[in-house]
Amino acid sequence: MFNLSEPITVSDEAHRAIVERHGLPQSTTLQLMPATGIINTVYALGEDLILRVPRANPQYGAALLKEARVIPAARAAGVRTPALVALDDRLDLLPVPYAVYERVPGTALGLLVAEPGDTALAWREVGRDLALLHAGVDADDLPLPTEPGSPGPDPCGLVEQRASEGWFTAMEARWLTEWLQRLAPASLTFHAHHPMRVLHADTQPTNVMVDEQTLGYRALIDWGDTRWGDVAGDFVGPPLRAVPFMLAGHRDVAPLDDDDTVEARILWRQLRTTVALLPRGGAPNLSWGERPLARLLEIMRFFLDVPDHRWAALAPPSTGAAQ
């Protein structure tokens, strides 16, 4: 499933050295935080700071270094995200770069068993922050990776591959392919005539900080996947039932590029991601957004709840239509 290097442990000696290097009180404690992802180990550094240490992989270290460019730009645009206090890539205290951030009071939404409808206000605020990000950061000010000219691999080819692997039969493959083909034109034509926007690109619940008691929104965290792309890419990480709330929040601030087709582009990407992740099967140690069956059930639940007219028009084909 994954070939991950072992997480880096911060020894007592390294802890003391980090505290000294960054001018913190010698009494500053180090406490391992609950895991919300697979790349970084997160520690509480005293009461007010967070220490993030990536696994020993150059790609993960580069993602951390990217945050040094992204976070100031996002905060300048008005996005609620913790400030980066220090980033150290000297590799003399730890074998990997590490970063120190302000600590946001609250907890990651992904650690709570909360339905999207119960956290609608928080998701709407995420959408508002995404609108500020999409409109407020200029490409010339923030060089980042960019999505390819097409929105990614052909999901219909992935469907055929998954059928050949035994995940479903040719009957389900035909039905799913019809659905994807109906959604595809919006995504495939978008890239030909629209500018790319800066994306957070990992808006799954583990990266949304909320108040544990009120479920009020606090901040959007973890900018290691940030890139330029279609704004629809910022609505792939969360449960599909959260997306209408996010879109409403975004539209409170600004319309989305090609707003009339954004729901189709989002659904196309959500389906593609689910199909791509199927070989993971059971994923007990991964977050919600990394679990293919959780994603599949979420899409089913979304359309069982009778969404509004913009989404109802995108519903899966009927059984008869697939014959």
Automatic annotation (TrEMBL):
<dbReference type="InterPro" id="IPR011009">
    <property type="entry name" value="Kinase-like_dom_sf"/>
</dbReference>
<dbReference type="InterPro" id="IPR000719">
    <property type="entry name" value="Prot_kinase_dom"/>
</dbReference>
<feature type="domain" description="Protein kinase">
    <location>
        <begin position="28"/>
        <end position="323"/>
    </location>
</feature>
<dbReference type="GO" id="GO:0004672">
    <property type="term" value="F:protein kinase activity"/>
</dbReference>
<dbReference type="InterPro" id="IPR051678">
    <property type="entry name" value="AGP_Transferase"/>
</dbReference>
<dbReference type="InterPro" id="IPR002575">
    <property type="entry name" value="Aminoglycoside_PTrfase"/>
</dbReference>
<dbReference type="GO" id="GO:0005524">
    <property type="term" value="F:ATP binding"/>
</dbReference>
<dbReference type="Pfam" id="PF01636">
    <property type="entry name" value="APH"/>
</dbReference>
<protein>
    <recommendedName>
        <fullName>Protein kinase domain-containing protein</fullName>
    </recommendedName>
</protein>
